[in-house]
Structures are given as C-alpha cells and as structure tokens.
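Batch manifest, entry 17 of 40.
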Amino acid sequence: MITPFFNRDIVLNSIGRKVLKIPMGIAIYREPPDSIKIFEELKAFYKTPMIISVGDVVTHNLLQYNGGSDIAIIDKKTLRTKDYLIEKEFLSHYNTVFECKNPRGGISRECASIIKKSIRLCLNKEKRVLIVIDGEEDLLVMPSLIFSPNKSFVLYGHWLGSLNILIVNDYLKMLTLQSIRKFFK
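Output type: structure tokens
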C-alpha cells in the first residue's frame, strides 16, 4: 500500500513548495540545550520506539546534548549552501552508515528504500544508522514518517529557527501519503 509511492523518484510541484514551507508538528522555538530538554520531556512521556533526526544541525544538537537519534539523515550542509561538518566523535555514535543521492525538492527511490531498511535494522538489531545524502535531505522527513512505527519521533529543524517534532501516528501517515499524491509529480 505505501511502497508504490517510492517505486520511482518523485519531485515536489510548485504548490507543494509553498505548502511544505510551513512548520509542522510541535515547533519548539528555543535554542539548544533548552529545545533538547523539551524534546526529552516529550520523549519520556510518549515512550517512543524510535527517534529519527533529519538535518545536520538537529542531529548535531541531539548528539551534543542528548546522545543522538536512532537514525540520522544529514547532507553535510545547513541552509542548503553552508558546509556543516559534525565532529567524528559524535558521528561514531552510529554503527551503520549508508549513502544515497537525493535531488533538491524531491525524494529518490534509493533514499526511501534506505530509510525503510534502516528503520528495520534499528528495530530488529538495535543498530544506529547514519544516512549521508548527496543532495538535499529535507523532504526525507516524509518516508521517515511513513515507514516509522507509531509513537516514533521524526525531528527536523525549520529555517525560521525551530526544532520540529512530528509524532508518528496513522493519521499523520495518511496525511503524508495524501500530500505525496497532491504535491509531487
């Protein structure tokens, strides 16, 4: 049911570009470590089975102040053009590394497949996975939501300065699938 959306590369249309700029989920407008403390409170309350961080700054802040996510998706950039390198000591938190290409404004079949595989690895073998993107990672929040178990958290940073937490549930998965139908070609 879900997989057919990722049997090919998909690209965001012009309407989708406008709609998906709006922060979604719980937006925390605090600097770290305060934002991470709020995240930790929510995590304890929900007893999340998995944490996925999408973005270099969010991943770095989680590693620095919290111990990191189960899956991190980074592209070694921030704000699309500025190089951003996370220290190797932090990245050693992840014991499995995948690389894939993902176009700007799109979701590649390859990356969606790697995200799905990474989630299975984390759930079944207690691995921690780092996915390094050649291209742009922003929209990879969507397959992360679709393939994650309910109550998982998908975290990303919004360019206006918030830490956004999406709490995975069936309704959010359905909305994500509808968004893919409506906003991608």
